[in-house]
Amino acid sequence: MNKLERFEQTHDTTLYFGLQVANFAIELNDDQIEEVIAEWSKQDKPNEVLAKLCSIPVTRADLRTLMGYNWLNDEIVNFYMQLLVSRSKAIPVLPTVYAFSTFFFLKLQRSGHAGVCKWTKDVDIFSYDLLLIPIHLSNHWVLTVAENIRSYPVLKIQVRSALSFRPYVTFLFQKHMPSFRIRVAYEILHEKLL
Predict the structure, then answer these.
(1) Which segments constitute the Ubiquitin-like protease family profile domain (predicted)?
(2) CA–CA dist 85, 30 (Å, integer)
(3) For every residue of 121-146, which 3-state class applies, written as one string?
(4) DSSP string covering 22-47, please?
(5) For the chain, does the N or the C end have fewer beta carbons within 10 angstroms?
(6) How many domains are there within the chain?
(7) Which strands make up the sheet holding 130-137, listed edge to edge?
């Protein structure tokens, strides 16, 4: 019996922590899983900062939102977006990425362009290959990914193919969430994507 199974037995959380890792997911080893579970299990110091990236702190309480099927908070989403940006900068062959804050879309929705134009006044968003826009829709997070149009030939009529889903899009289903959340927690603790 591995450490995750022992944790599930003692905490009656099979539904929350049962690993159903899809073939595209990077599996964590027992030590990595134990590290995440140990942080989740600590009840003291909920405001202790466990990771910080681009002035976005993640506290123990924030990290616990990744436990089970809890609601994710803005700090977790913003931090993870910055992990994606950091990886893009560190590996030049990857597409360049700009991530908007979780508050961007709400501000855009409420105040229009005038409300958010200062957010990007020092950033040439057209110089990036991908723009990530996290959106909170009452009880769901969605991620809008805008691909820079420069990657499509201007004079070709390829609107249908340009707007269709890319063949490399991977879908995560609810059954993948427990293992995905554990991996995200581990990546946040180490401030690096696997």
Answers:
(1) 56-194
(2) 28
(3) CCCCHHHCCEEEEEEEECCEEEEEEE
(4) -TTSPPP-HHHHHHHHHHHH--S-TT
(5) N
(6) 1
(7) 97-99, 130-137, 140-147
The whole-model pTM stands at: 0.77
Residue 152, pLDDT > 80, answer: no
Cβ atoms of 105 and 77 closer than 8 Å? no
Residues written for the chain: 194
Q: Give the integer Cα–Cα distance in Å for 122 and 145.
A: 21
Q: Give the list of residues 6+ apart from residue 137 with CB closer than 8 angstroms, or none.
A: none
What average pLDDT does the segment 100-106 reach?
A: 93
Give the structural domain span for 66. Answer: 3-190
- Quote the Cα angle for 59-61-64, to 5°: 110
| CATH code, domain carrying 100 | 3.40.395.10
- Please, which residues have CB within 8 angstroms of residue 119's CB and are 6 or more apart in sequence? 100, 101, 104, 107
